[in-house]
Amino acid sequence: MKKLLFKELRLCLTPQAIVFCCLSSLIIIPSWPSIVAFVYTFMAFIVIFPMAIANHDMEYTAILPVRKKDIVKGKALLAMSIEIISILISIPFALIKVFFINGSIPATDTYSDLGINLVLYGIVLALSGLFNLIFIPWYYKNPYKTAKPQIFTTFLIMVVMISIVIIFVSIPEATTFVNTFSGIALIVQFISLFAGLLLFLGLSALAAYLGGKRLEKIDL
Length: 220
Prior knowledge:
Elements: H1 2-11, H2 15-22, H3 39-43, H4 45-54, H5 57-62, H6 68-101, H7 118-139, H8 147-170, H9 172-178, H10 183-215
């Protein structure tokens, strides 16, 4: 699997996708919903999969001594790598925002928001797993058409993100709780992060399994 992932990174990862991945750094923008910065991560796939089709990546991979389900696992690992790297890129910018920017903004210019905490990253991980679960099996139902699954799945994730923003804007007490780094609130943060990680890994593994089952029915 390591060789398949290396192949995906060398042949399918485009400069545009890297740029989208790095846009999670926009989390540093003052008075901006923190979770919105991660929507660009999912837009990276709008570039990757059409490019793979144009470069006949499917046909090339099919002639390698690998099983069809391993082809899907390679793409799933690429998707997971992009999502994890996007999160890692955001962390230093998030810390700069927390320790150097937020304190200089007057209270009158701020609003209730999910903020930057372990709950945020747990939610992002869970949403990444959900994206993979919907998109990958749907894509491998017909791996030569990408528009419909990409547009629908990205739109769905955006709707969920907007809903989360609205919830925390509407309930200031929830914002205060998830941004408290002590007591029960801190325990909830760690539980949220751990649950998000489990969902990310579990849903992504299920996505690869279902995608592999669908690709096996296709004559490449």
